[in-house]
Amino acid sequence: MSPRSARLARLSRSVTFSACHRLHSKSLSDEENMKLFGKCNNPNGHGHNYKARLLISLLVSLQIDPVSGMVMNLTDLKEYMQEAIMEPLDHKNLDRDVPYFHEVVSTTENVAVFIWENLQRLLPPGLLYKVKVHETDQNVVVYKGEETKAG
Predict the structure, then answer these.
(1) Domains in the chain, please, with CATH?
(2) Of 98, 114, 126, 134, whose CB count within 10 A is highest?
(3) Which keywords annotate this record (predicted)?
């Protein structure tokens, strides 16, 4: 079978991890933190069952391999996700156990950036398209790397 043209595809994979955190900025007073973050500023923190979904894509050559029939070996992707997401974040207190969050507020936006940066170190260049993190069913953050605001 000879392909008429290269077949392109995007691959998505999800993991779920549990972690706790406290939304608190060292740049604000305790009163300002309470006003900004409300109950999420509880000194004892609170937890989530986060769901991280990755969309893998290469702008030019994300082609389905004609021999393996795959865009990327899922076993490799699972190992990358284990190292970049599960090991540093699962069952952790983000603010205390993850050095990145010692100086960065552990919002879902920053969790998405953390995951992106960790995966970028492991994946072949240009492969990661976006990271989508579900903090709850209602709160979802999508991060596509450094984008500049138009206009």
Answers:
(1) 11-143 (3.30.479.10)
(2) 114
(3) Lyase, Metal-binding, Tetrahydrobiopterin biosynthesis, Zinc
Give me 119's structure tokens.
């995966």
Find the catalytic residue in 40, 83, 109, 117. 40
**What does pTM read for this prediction?**
0.85
Query: Has 40 been annotated as catalytic?
Result: yes
Whether 7 shows a pLDDT value over 50: the answer reads yes
pLDDT at residue 62 in the model: 61
Q: Which of 32, 46, 91, 102 is catalytic?
A: 91
In contact, 84 and 119? CB cutoff 8 Å: yes
- Residue 111 vs residue 70, higher pLDDT: 111
CA 66, 69, 134, 95 torsion-angle sign: negative
Q: How far apart are CA 7 and CA 97, in angstroms?
A: 43
